[in-house]
Design a protein that fits this description.
six-stranded parallel beta sheet, 243 residues, four-stranded mixed beta sheet, 10 strands, elongated, alpha/beta
């Protein structure tokens, strides 16, 4: 598990100092001025949080948590706009990866590892609903989580608009396409979107992309694990870019 901070004031200070917080667990039914101040800060900065019974908090830490426990990411997140502008200034053909609600930490770690091997310039995830970066994520990524810049955004839709306005083509990996992966040109500034393990990319996101592509599946199983499918997409992009 990633490092923890516990205690209302300590968690508030972590927020104020811009620590990379994965999630905050709050005790159900708790009140008080300081607790309400914490709730306000959580809403202000869009931090993922859950209200849980005190028994849950007691399992998370044996220390005096005072009704608040924060899980801190082992890696520092990048500011999305700054990351994109930096890459645009350094790369002729930027290469990004967006993850729409990928929630399994080991899948996330495997994806990060493959992304690093494929030269992805940055990974973009939503602040809410995405897998946290835990020690398991870092381990599965073989340390790549410390090498690939990762940015959190409030809404993937806004990130897509920003990428498109920056001249970056957005390609969705989805079975809801007539074109397979080998019909898409990845040898341009582009960003690939992978969807959630159970439901794929949301319809609202699919409506915004420039291209959709699917993997040919020749057996009886109707889908691949998202980290495997992501690897195929990324390496097709690498193949085209190296040819």
């Amino acid at each position: 598990m990633s490092n923890q901070i516990y205690g209302i004031r300590a968690v508030l200070e972590a927020i104020d100092s811009e620590q990379p917080i994965n999630k905050i667990f709050l005790q159900k039914g708790l009140g008080g001025e300081l607790f309400r101040e914490l709730e306000t800060s959580i809403r202000k900065y869009g931090i993922s949080s859950s209200y849980v019974p005190i028994e849950k908090l007691n399992r998370l830490t044996k220390s005096n948590h005072q009704g608040a426990v924060a899980n801190i990411s082992p890696v520092q997140f990048h500011i999305f706009e700054e990351l994109v502008e930096k890459v645009l200034g350094q790369e002729k053909s930027p290469f990004f990866l967006l993850l729409d609600q990928v929630s399994d930490v080991r899948n996330f770690g495997a994806i990060i590892r493959t992304a690093e091997c494929c030269g992805v310039n940055g990974i973009i995830i939503p602040k809410s609903g995405a897998a946290p970066i835990t020690d398991d994520t870092v381990k599965t990524s073989a340390g790549a989580a410390f090498k690939v810049p990762i940015a959190k955004v409030d809404h993937l839709k806004d990130a897509i608009f920003y990428l498109q306005s920056s001249g970056i083509k957005v390609i969705a990996a989805t079975e809801k396409s007539e074109n397979d992966i080998y019909m898409v040109d990845f040898n341009t500034p582009c960003a690939i979107i992978m969807g959630a393990e159970d439901r794929g990319i949301s319809t609202s996101i699919l409506n915004l992309v420039d291209h959709k592509a699917k993997l040919p599946l020749l057996g009886e199983i109707g889908s691949l694990n998202v980290s495997v499918a992501c690897g195929v997409f990324l390496y097709e992009a690498v193949r085209q870019r190296m040819s």
